[in-house]
Structures are given as structure tokens and as C-alpha cells.
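Can anyone check this?
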Amino acid sequence: MAIREHSIFDCILSNSQNTGGETALVSGELRLTFAELPLHVNCLARGLSKTGFEKGDRIAVLLNNCSEYVLLLAACTRIGIVAVCLNTRTSADEMRMVLESTKPKALLFQTIYEQHAEALRDLLPPRQLYSIDEAAVLSTSFDQFIDEDPSPLTEPQPGVDEGWLIIPTAAVDGIPKGALLSQRNVMASAAVHLQHFGRDSIKGHLVALPIFHVMGLTSAWATFISGGKNVLLKQFEEKLAVELIDSEQLTYFGSFPPVLERVLDTSKEFGSGLESLKLVYGLEGPQNIQRLHEETSAVFWTGFGQAETTAFVTASPATERPGSSGKATLLNSVAVVDDVDKQLTCGEEGEIVVRGENIFLEYWEMPEATAYTFRNNWHHTGDIGSFDEDGYLWYVKRKAEKELIKTGGENVYPGEVETVLLKHPEINECCVIGVPDKTWGEAVKAICVCSDAAKLSLEEVRDFVGEKIAGFKKPREINFVEELPHVNNEIDREAVKAKWGAN
């Protein structure tokens, strides 16, 4: 069947019939088979409907990886609810902007994020905070959503082209954009996994990346759809990760700095050869990739993708063309264009543009931003790259107006950090850049011009930033200087990088 003929729930039902006795989901002590999975989804979908949720309603989710998260997303596909997947590492102020835009009917959270949930209560209808933990107060239990009747719902399923998930993206101008994904988008991404990685390589998945990240999300669903087993890590713990890979015979997981390094160090410490591991995907440093290939039989796959592309649109084993982002996947058209969208030839640098069934629907309630990115029937990524003569994509940088720092798998736009820093009464001017970091890939560094009387420290600035932005966005290093270089009355970012970017 073509992707358009399948829904997520169709795949769940199919696997329950074909591989019903096989384990589908492991989360702590909980183990669900494929036969049990649709029963739990039906109970939850029916409960949500009885609670008053209707097609098109939004529900915000503030959870680490857990069974409740997975089951909720599956139930949303059955009745047409749109899940707003909040990044747990962002601040309450950042989450507030997302909720103000999406206007969810409820917020589902766990106790460790209770303070954030309370700070967002005023944006929700009365009594619409739901906790998965008994310890949480001033909230309703998640169990209220669970109906005892596991029989299939009679209502028709929503279309696969309708909105299913909202993934907030990094804020270019201080305002996050919510990328709206459909079931078709995720099914297409699952097909990429199957076609390129192979079914045998994805039959056992350690869900080490957060489900609210598009790579963790799509890999988990690709595993379910292919009849494989997902084992959830609530929070990344290298020792537990190694234990689960070995005990559950897991075949792949996703990695961002410094995940892979910590897994390899721990496996060496405890004498594990990670024998079942076949594949690791994501973004990593060359040294860690080399270690993976030397110390295990697994293969590292690299690629290029965004939340807007539902993960990878190019992918290849890292050893095929070291340093590249791989070749276009079988389901995508990828090109490099100039400023008037003329396709460029081999070796010429330009903006990376993409087409395919995995390209997102829209930016939530941002029609102008949506129209801009989809001009001339291409999704414009804002990234600069080039193709070589063999069709491998080489990533160069972000476009100037979309300068981006990638730290530990998270995206940070310098402009967002600069906006917060400039609210400090003693900071007159600043420029935020990314600098090399052995552990995180890149680190956030600020170059600040202060008033003559000011004597600020890194700690004082970080304290000022406080809860305004996520911890991973706070500068790890600050240089206080008398002046910044300018060109055409604007800060010369390239000159700043050249002078202070070596770390």
C-alpha cells in the first residue's frame, strides 16, 4: 500500500494481528505486546472523548519518555487531537509562548515539571492540568482519561493529512514556531528508516533521544510500524542504556553529543561489546564515530534534517563520504538554489530546499512564515550547502538571518539569546556565537560591550538570564570588550567569529 492508505492506528492494528505476542513497548517495569497495544490505545482514546476532547483540540505534553506519552500520541491519531510536544529543557516563559499560540485544552505533565505546569495554569481552562504521578498536587490524575472499555471506537479515523503533532522549533526572533506534522509525514519518515536502514537494523530501538525531538519521535514510530520493539529511557543514563541494549538485544539508537561517547565509555568499563547493536543514527563527532566502528559491529548513519522535514531527508553511512550529510533519501527531492530559487550545479553553494511526503504542513497560525518557507513549491530550510559530483550533500552553515548554534542536539538561535542579554541595564551591545566544544559539539559564547561603570561576571549574567531562556541557551563563556566590529551599521558577525570564535 502507498503511505496515504495507512494511518498510524492501522499499523498498530496490523501488527497486533501479525505479531501479537511480540513485545512492542518497554517502559520501566511495564511491558506491552503488540496485541495489548491497541487495547490500551482504545481505552485512552475513548476516555479522552468522554472527557470532552474533540477532533482538532490541542493537548500540551510536558513529559520525559514514558508509556503515557507513547499511548497518548497513538490515541490522538484515533480521534484527531493535536499533541503539542513541549521541550522539557525550555523555560516556563518559553513554554508560555507556545501555549499562547496553540491554546491547548489541557496540559499533561509529570511531577518533576510541576513548577512549570503551575506557571502555565492560567493559560488553560479550569482544572485542565493532568499529572501522570500521584505525587503531583493541584492537578487531576491522568487515569481519568482511561476508560475501561477496550473495544474499538465506531467513529471514523481522522485523515492522515490532518494535523497530529506540533513540534516547537528554535526561536529565530524570540518567538518559537510550531511545526505542524501529519500522520503522513511520520509514516513517510518511517518508510525512510525501513528503506535505508533495513528492517533487521530497527527491530529493537533504545529510545534514548526525547520523544519531543523529531528524531526520537520518528524513530520510535518507525520501530512500531515495522513491528519492532521500543525500549524507553526516561532520562539518558549511560549505564542503564548499555544494560538495556544487552538485556533487550536492541539494534539501534539515536545520538547527539555526548551520548555516544558516554555509551562507548560505559560499555568498555563494564566489558560489554554491545553485540546486538547494528546501527546508530544522528549527529556526532568524527572521533566518536570512529570509536563506534572500531569497538562494535554497528554502523553510524548521518544525514540532514529538521523538525519541518520530519527528520532525515538525506542519509548515508558515515564511512561512505566522511564529513558529508549523505545522499537524498528515496522519498525526497533535495536541491540547492540561489536567491531566486534557480537550482545550482555541483559544487556551488546555496540554500538547501526539499520536497516530499515528510515535509510538514505549516507553522501553526503563522501563515506568512508558512508561505515564505514554501515559496515556489519547495520547503526552504534556511541552511546553506552544496552537492558533490556523486550526489552527497555537504552542509556549510545557516543563512545569515537564521544563524544557528547546535549544542548537544539542541538548536539555539543567537538572536534569541541576544534579545535576552540586551535587557540587562549594563549591557549595551552583544553578539552571540557558537564555539567548538569537545563534549557538546558547540557551546554558546557571548561577546558583550558594557557601560563604563559595569563590572559584570559570567555568573552575574547567567543569573540575570535566569528562567528567561532554557539552560542550554545560556552562555557558557562571555568576553567583555570595549567595542564590537561593525559593517553597514550592524555588528559584523563574521568578524566577531574570526576574533573570538576559536574558544
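Reply from J.R.: I decoded it. The first strand starts at residue 23 and ends at 27.
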